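User: Hello, can you help with two protein structures?

Assistant: Certainly.
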Amino acid sequence: QVQLVESGGGLVQAGGSLRLSCVTSRSLFSIGAVGWYRQAPGNERELVARITTLGNTNYADSVKDRFTISRDNAKNTVYLQMNHLKPEDTAVYYCNLPFAPTNWGQGTQVTVSS
C-alpha cells in the first residue's frame, strides 16, 4: 500500500504563504492522481486540489487562484503552494489518492492568524 507523508505546515499571518509537501513511497507514475485535502475542526474533510499523472489540475473554488498543486516525479513528491492565505484556510492538510484511497497520514497543521 502507498505510504504518504505530509509536511510543511505552520503558523502564518493572513496574506502569507506556505508550501506543503507530500512524499509518496512509490513512483508518482504508478499511483495515479494525487490530491490535497483539508479538515477544519467540526467540518468534513474536503478535497482542495488534485493533480493527475499527466499534470492536469483541479481546484476547489475556495482556493482557486491562490493555491497551486505541482509534482516532482524524480522526488516522488507532490507540493501545494498556498498564497494569500486566509484564516478560513486553517485546517489539517492531508494528501491521498482520489481514485484509489489509501490510509490517511497524520497530516500537517496549517494555522492562519488574522
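That covers the first. Now for the second protein you mentioned:
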Amino acid sequence: QVQLVESGGGSVQPGGSLRVSCAASGMIFRFYPMAWYRQAPGKQRELVAEITAGGNTDYADSVKGRFTISRDNAKDTVDLQMNSLKPEDTAVYYCYAPRQASWGQGTQVTVSS
C-alpha cells in the first residue's frame, strides 16, 4: 500500500521561501514519476510541478522560475522548493504518485503579510 506523507508547510510573508517534502513508502520509488498539486479555498486542485523517474521536470506557468521540484531516490522523497512566494500561492499542497493514483494528506502553505 502506497503512503505519501508531506511535511514542511507553514506561513511566510510575500517574497519568502518554503520547502515542502514528501516521503513515499510502499512503492519502488525510483521507477515512477511524482507530482505536486495544490488546492486553494474554493478552487479546483491544480498541478504545480511534476518530475519523471529520470528527473525531467515540468511546471505550471504560474510557478515557473520560482518553484523547483526535486527527488532523492536514495531517500524516497520528493521536494518542492518555493521561492518568491506570493499570496496567490496560498493553498494546501499535495504530493501525488500518478501511476499509483495515490495522494498524500496535504500540507498548508500560507503566504500573507
